[in-house]
Write a structure and sequence with these properties.
0% strand
Length: 198
Amino acid sequence: MDADGLPLVGPGVDLTKVGAIHPKRMLAFLNHFVTHTTRFLNKFSCVCEQKLSDLNTRIQRLEVTMNILEAKLASIPGLENVTVVAPPVPGPTPEGPPTVVQDVPALPAADQPNLPAVEAPPEAPPTMTVSQDPRYIKYFKMINMGVPVGALRQKVLLDGLNPDYLDTPNAPAPQATQDDSDSSFVESSSDEQDEFSD
């Protein structure tokens, strides 16, 4: 028997003759287990969430940096037809010793052949997409806020616009008619009056 009066369990003890653990003690063990397991899982989930948040932030920064780099490269004239060749992955090559690549000296300007200058094709004028159209922009804001597209279709029809454009936000915007521009002016002026009224 131990200090608490419980029989010691070992290889020579008949477990059928050992008394059951007191229910209060069993309840204390279960409460302790549940409490510690819950604390561990809460802490683990917080750590995982923080790491995912940090990783998401790093990915967003990387995307922004890549977009800036692409924009800078796109602004350099003459790089339209340049293709990027990925460098080989460093590592042991099973086929034999590595090959040595020698630098080829550039030809002097007098020895270079005269190539005709290639003119870049004229850029197409930028077209406004449906999501940038002032008539449709408020509907796309609603979609971004979580309003279902089906619920907006009736509102778009009531405003005299085509609801099919809600499914294609990157499509070129339809040409505005004189009636559309007049009604949008009236709507915007009435919205301004509503904002500043008492």
